[in-house]
Amino acid sequence: MDASSSRWHEITPSSFAHEQAALRYVRDLLPDRTPYQAWSNFYFISDQGHVREVDLLVAAPTGLFLIEIKNFRGRLSNDGALWTHKNRTFDNPLPLADLKAKELKTLLGRAASKDRGIKIPFLRGCIFLAEPQMQCDLDEGQRAHLYVPDDARSADKLRRLGADLLLGPVRHAPPQPEFLRALPRLLQKVGIHRTRRSVMVGPWQIEPSPYDSGPTWQDHHATREDLPGAYRRIRVYHYERQADEESRESVRHAAQREFLATQGIEHPGLLVPRELLQHELGPALVIEQHRNAKRLDHFMADDGAALDLPQRLGLVRQLAEAVGYAHDRRLVHRALSPRAVIVEPGPGGWAEPRLRVGEWQSAARGLSSTHTTHRVEVTTHAGRHVEAAAAAYLAPEFTQDADGTVAIDVFGLGSTAYLILTGKAPASSRVELAERLTTVDGLHPAEVVESIPSDIDDLVFEATRPRVTERIPDVEFFLGLLDDALGASAQPDETVVDPWDAQAGTELPDGYKVKRVLGTGATARAFLVERDGHHSVLKVGRTAEAEERLGDEAVVLEGLRHDHLVVLKRGVFALGSRHAIEIDYAGEQTLARLLRDEGAQLPDQLQRFGDQLLDAVGYLEAHEVFHRDIKPDNLGVRRHPKRGPALVLFDFSLAGAATTDIAAGTRGYRDPFLGTARRPTYDRAAELYAVAVTLHEMASLELPTWGVDGTDPQFVDEVTISSEIFDAGLREPLTAFFRTALHRDADSRFPTAGAMRQAWNRVFTAMDEQGPARTSHTPTDDPEEQRDEAAAAATASTALDAAGLSLRAVAVAQRLGADTVGELVAIPTRALWRARGLSRATRLELVKRASEWRRTLPVSESAPPAPSVDASAQSGLDTLAARLLPPATRRGADQRTITRSLLGLPDENGALPSTRWPSLTELGAAHGLTRARISQLTQKRRLEWSSDATLGEIRDEIAGTLRGLNRVAAASELVEQLLISRGCDREEDPERRRACAYAVLRAVVEADSNLEEPLFATRRHHDRVLVALQVGDDESYDTPNDAELLDMTVALADEAVRLAGSDPLPTPVAVVRALEAIARRHDLVPGEQRLVQLAAAATGTVLANARLELYPRDLDPIRALRLSQAGAGVPPEGLAPEALVRRVTARFPGLNGFPDGPDLARMLRDASFDLRWDGHRLRPMTTAAASSTSLSHTSAGGMQAQAQPAAEGPDARLAYALRHGGVRVVTFRRSRWPATRAHVSALAEVDAVDASAAFVEALRAVARERKIASFDVVLRADAPDADSRARTNLQLVVGEAWARLDDAWSGADVLVLDALTPFGRYPGGMALLDRGLDAARRGGRNRGPRTVILLCAAQDEHEAPRIGTQAVGLETSEEWVIAPSSWSRATTTVA
User: Fold this and answer.
1) pLDDT at position 837, please?
2) 1169: exposed, middle or buried (C-beta count within 10 Å: 0-12, 13-18, 19+)?
3) How many secondary structure helices (H) and strands (E) does the chain include?
4) What is the CATH classification number for the domain harbouring 822?
5) 539 is in an annotated binding site
6) Cα separation, 833 vs 844, whole angstroms
7) Among residues 1180, 1195, 1229, which one ends one of the domains?
8) CA torsion 729→730→733→737, rounded to 10°?
9) Of which family is this protein a member (predicted)?
C-alpha cells in the first residue's frame, strides 16, 4: 500500500523515526485493495471522558485491530505483569490497548445505531513490538496478542504481524462489507482527531499522551515555558461524553475530594495535590513530585536487588511513619499498595531513596471526627477510583464498604512491606491473595527470603491477618513492634552513623541512650533517651530547613519556665551528622489518650485541667508567645503521687511560624474567622479559640462545629456546642461559657487568658451554688444547709441529685454506676477512695455521706413496700381475669366478646386488642352497637363484679397503693404494682400478663363506680387513663380532692412532653423546677421523685430515670448511645453487646431498639465511638498518636479533619421532626427536585402533596359548588387584565379553596408540601401556611398537623427559603435543612 493511497489515512504525521519506520513496515505489508484500510496517529474521547491516543487502526479480512506500537531494543523481560527493559520497569501495555479497543467499539456501535444491517465486528487490541532485533524473554503468559515483524529475531517466540495477523488465514467471520464501507463515515461520526503535541492546563503545558491512567483519571507530565526546569505531575479527572451538569458536578466533586482530603498536611512522606485547576477535559490536580520518580513496584523490580536488609527495613519505616502521620491527621488511605507509593531520589540520590504515599482518591478524612476516637468517614464507591494493579495488596474488607478505620491501612502497610522485603508481590490478583490468606492466615515474607529475621516475618504476618480483630490494631503499634525487632537484632556495640536511624538501645553521642522512638513528624523525629539516669526527649531534625524550625522552637522555649510547659534542657546542638534539641518528658500519656481511655472528664478534673491550661496560656501571653497548635494531642499528662495529674503543654514547633501564616495549626482547633479584613493575621483570640475547643473536647469528647452541612463558618450564625453531653450540673454555665469563648466575633470573646480563666472557674462556682433538686425547701439560701437537710431526709430510693450531694459528687457517683442513695451505699468505701478524677474534698464528701447513710438507712430499704397480701391464698391475675368474663352461652356469646374488648383481654384467637382501656363509644363503634346498649352491658358486668370478694380485696389494695403515691397515679403504674403483688399463675408472656393486670384493674374501677361511696375517680388524657382517690368522709378538710389531683396530673403530663422534646434534654434540676412550678399552681407538690415519675407515667410517650431526667420513649438509639457515653472507656478486652446496651438502659430505662453484633458496632460508630465487632465482643479500635510519647505532627499550613457537627445531619434532623413534631423547610437545587422529593417522601413514609395541584383542584371544587358555568371564568379572573369585580370574586373563590385545603390538611399527622407557588401568589396562602407551621411547632395543637415539611426549590440551595417573593418564616436555624447532594445519589432507607 502506497503512502498516497486513499486507504491509508495518516491523521497526524509522526515525529519519531522509530514510529515512522514501524508505520512504514505495516503500510508495506498491506495490499492496496478492498477491504484493507488503516488510520494512524489519532485520538478519540471515550464515554468516560478519557483522551485515548491510537497508533494504528487496521481493517483487514482477518478482523479489525487497534495496534499499539512499541520500540524496544535489547532484552525485554518480565516479573509477573511488570515488564522490564533496560532497567526500566513498566506495566504490560496490552490491558490498556484492549481497553481502548473496547471503548472505540462502543462508540462505533453507537454511531451505527441508525444504520440497519451494520454489525460492528470484534475490535482486538494488539501490541506491535517493531524492533526486529529485540530479544524476548517474556514468560509465556505475557506473550498474548504480541506481534513482531515477520523476520524478527523473536519470531520463533512471538506471532508475526503479517503472516499471523493481518495477512494470515481468516479464522473467524470477517467484517461485513457493509461495515467496511461505512467505517470511514463511522469514525468521522465518533470523532477522531489529530494528535495534539501539547495541552495547556492553567500555566502548565502537559504532554497529551498520559504516562499513567486509572478508571476515572489520567496522569500527564507537565512543564512551564516561563519556568525552565519546573516539572509537575498533572492528574486530569475526565468528564464523560455527553455528560449533563450534574454528572460534571460529580466528577468535580471526586477531584475536589482528593484535593481537600490532604490539604494542609505537610510531610516529606506524603504526596499531596498542590492545586486544583479547571480544564475543558475535567478538573486537574497539580502534584509536585520528582521528574524521575518511580512507582514502588517498578522501583523494586529495577533496583530492589541492590538493597540490603537494613535498607529495606528503612523503607518500611519510612512508609509506616508517613501512613502513621496521615492517621494522626485523621486521614486513612484505604487503598495503600505499591501502586500508591512513589520512590524519589533522596538527599544522597538514589542511594537514599525516599518513599512518598499518594493516590488519595479513595481516602477517608475525619468527616465524623468530632469524637476523640478520631473516627473517619469513608469515601463511597472507593473501588471505582483504584487502579487494578493495587488489587493484590488491598485488605479483604476493602470491597465490603469498610468503615474507614485504620486497620485497612495496616493491611496495606504489611502487604507493601512484603514486596519491599522480598521483591515479590504477595499474589498476582485479588482472588489469588484471598486464596492464600485462607490457607496461611497471613503473609510470611520469610517463605521467599529465608534470611528475613523471624520477628520481622511475624510483624508482616500479624499486619496482614485477614480478620480485622486479629490484625495489628494501628500503625503506632506496628512501628513499636518494628522498633522492638530492630532493637533486638542490633548489635550492642553497633555505631550508628546517622542518629535519625537510631533504635531502642542505640548509644548516641554525648552519652544519650535511646529507650524508644516516640514518633516522627514533618520536621523532626523524637526519641525518649536516658542520660546520667534521667529521662528526656531528643528531637532530631530531618533536614537543614527542619533544623531551623528546631532552632526557632528552642529560642521560644529558652526563656520559659512554668509547671505546665515543657522545659528546654539543651538548645540546638550537633548530634553526629544531625542537629537536635533536648526537652523534658511531658508524660507517658497525652490528654487525647486519656480522653479516649476514660471518656469526658469529671467536673473536678475538668476544672483542674482547664485551670492549668489557661494558667500556662496566660504565662505564654505575658511573654508574648503563641503556641499555635493547642490541642489534646499536644498536652501531656504527668502524674504526681501527691499532687495528682497535671497537664504539660509541649510541641512548640509552630511557635515561630509567621503570624501571616493563618493556615498553620490543626483544623478544628484553628479559628475559622482568621484571614478576614478585620483579622488578617494570627492573634490572641485565635490562640484562645484553640484553648476553648480543647476545653470543649475535655467536657464532651466532641469538637464544637459551625454548621451541619459543610457550610463555610463565615455564613453560619452560631457555633454548635455539645451541651447535651455536658454533666447535668455544668450544662447551663458551660454552654454560656462556650457561647462567649467561641463567638464568631473575636471582640465578643474573652479578651485575655486571665479573663477566660476567671470565667472558667466561675462555671464551677455556679455549679457549687446549685441546691439539690428537691420540691421541699428550707428558709435558708445556703446550698450546704440545703444539702444537709436533703441528706437527712433521703431514703434508699432517693435520686442522688435530690439527696444532698454536691453536683461534683453526683457526677462521680453516676460514673461509678450509682443513681440513687441505695446504689451509692452499695459501692465499697475502698472503691470511693480509689476513684480517679476527683478532688480530695469531693472524695471526702462521698465517703462521709455514704457512711452516714449506711448507718441510718436499712440495708434492704428500697421502694415503699406494697400492701401485704398472703401469696398462698390469692389467685393470680390471669385466673381472676378469666373469672371476669360471662359464661360462654349461645345467648351470651356477644356479651363475652364485648367484655373481652372492654377489659382489653385477648380475643378468642389470642390476639391482643390495640386499646388497653377503650371508652364505651369506642366499644360501640367496634361492635356495631349504640353507646346506650354498651352502657347496659357494662352495668350488668359492674353488678356482677361488685359482689366478687377478691375484687373487693384488690380495691382496698389499690386504694392503699394510691395513698402511697400521693393519691393519684396513671393506670400503668397501678398495673405494675398489681403484677408485683399478685402476679399470674400460668401466663408468662409479658404483654399478656400486663393485659390481665389491666383487665383486673378496670374491673375493680368499674365495680367501684357502682358503689354508693366510690373510692376512685378516673380521667382520660390522650390515650392514658389516670386514677385518683376521692376524698372520704373521715378524711381531713385539707385532703386534695380528685379533680384537683387529676387537673394537676394532666398539666404535669403536658409539661413532661415539652421537657422531653427539648434539645438538649433538661437537667434534673430544670425538670424538678419546671414540674414543681406546675404543681404549685394547684397547691399540690409531691416529693421530687414522685413528681417526675407521675409526670412521665401520665404521658405514655415519656420515660423517667432515677436521675430525675425525662426523655422520649422513642429516644433515638444513636442519641441515647451518645448521651450515655456507653462507648467511652470500654476496656481493651471489650464488652459483650448486652453489657454495652446495659450501659445505655442503666441511664435510660425502658429504651428498646438496640441491635446486636455488627449492627450495634455500626450504630456506635454513628454515635462517634470506634468499637469493632470481633464476632463475640465489641472492642476499642485503637488509633495512632495516643500518648505524649508521640511527636506532634502538625506543621505549618497543617489542617485537621473537619469535625462532626454536635448537631445531627439532614436525615437525622428530619427524622427528629417526624418523631417529635415540628417544622422543617428543605431547600434544594431545582435540578435535584425529583430525587429530593423521593428522598423526603421515603423518609417521612408519606407522599409529598403537590400544593399547586391541590390548590387548583380545590378551586375547581369551589367553582362547581358555586355553580360557575366554566372554570375558564376563574382563569380569566386571574388574568392581569381582569376587572376589579372579577378579581374580587376570585378572592372569594380562593379564600374558600384555602379553607378546603385547611380542613383537608389539618387532620394529617405528617404533611409534606411541594410545589408551593400558590402560597406566595394568592391572598391567604401565606396565612394558611403560617397557621400550619405554628400548629406543628406546638405539637399539632388546634387540629393542625404535628409535623410540616416544606420542599423549597431554589437556584442555590444555600439561599434562605422563599416562596416566590415571600420569605418563609423560620423560628430557629434547626428548621432549615439544606438538601445534600448525596440525596440525589443515594436511595433512602427508612428504619
Assistant:
1) 82
2) buried
3) 41, 46
4) 1.10.150
5) yes
6) 8
7) 1180
8) 180
9) Belongs to the protein kinase superfamily. NEK Ser/Thr protein kinase family. NIMA subfamily.
Whether residues 539 and 512 share a domain: the answer is: yes
Contact 394, 434 (CB under 8 A): no
Reading the block at residue 1087, the C-alpha cell is: 416529693
Q: Say how many CA atoms lie within 13 Å of 1191 toward its Cβ.
A: 27
Do 299 and 275 have their domain in common?
no
Cα separation, 1244 vs 45, whole angstroms: 43
Query: 187-211 as b/e, with b when 16 or more CB fall inside 10 Å?
Result: beebebeebeeebebbebbbeeebe
Residues 810 and 836 in one domain: yes
Domain membership flag for residue 985: no
> Which sign, positive or negative, has the C-alpha torsion 700, 703, 709, 712?
positive
- For residues 1008 and 958, give the distance between their C-alpha atoms in angstroms, rounded to a whole number: 11
Domain CATH code at residue 507:
3.30.200.20
Domain extent, residue 838, equals: 783-856
Cell numbers placing 1216 = 427528629
Residues 6+ apart with CB under 8 A from 875: 950, 982, 985
The CA distance from 968 to 75, in Å, is 97
Q: Are 62 and 171 in contact (CB under 8 A)?
A: yes
Q: Give the pLDDT confidence of 967-999 residue by residue, as tens digits.
A: 999 999 999 999 988 888 888 888 999 999 999
Give the SS3 label for residue 126.
strand
Q: Is the pLDDT reported for residue 226 higher than 80?
A: no
Of 812, 833, 856, the one marking the end of a domain is 856
Residue 515 CB burial class (10 angstroms; 0-12, 13-18, ≥19): middle
Predicted pLDDT of residue 894: 79
**Rounded CA separation 498/351 (Å):** 15
Domain-embedded: residue 987: no
Q: What is the pLDDT of the chain when averaged over all its residues?
A: 85
Residue 101 φ/ψ, nearest 5 degrees = -60, -45
Residue 417's nearest CA partner among 490, 341, 304, 319 is 319
CA gap 844, 855 in Å, rounded: 17
Does residue 924 lie within any of the structural domains? no
Q: What is the pLDDT of residue 782?
A: 83
Question: In total, how many domains does the chain have?
Answer: 8
Query: What sign does the CA torsion over 1280, 1284, 1290, 1296 have?
Result: positive
Q: Of 455, 75, 432, 803, nearest to 83 (Cα)?
A: 75
CA triple 677-681-682, angle to 5 deg: 135
Residues 333-361: what's their mean pLDDT? 89
Residues 533 and 564 placed together within one structural domain of the fold: yes
The string of pLDDT tens digits covering residues 818-836 is 989 988 998 888 888 888 8
What would the mean pLDDT of 1314-1342 be, rounded to a whole number?
80
- pLDDT band per the 50, 70, 90 thresholds, residue 1248: very high
CATH code for the domain of 353: 1.10.510.10
912 occurs within a structural domain: no
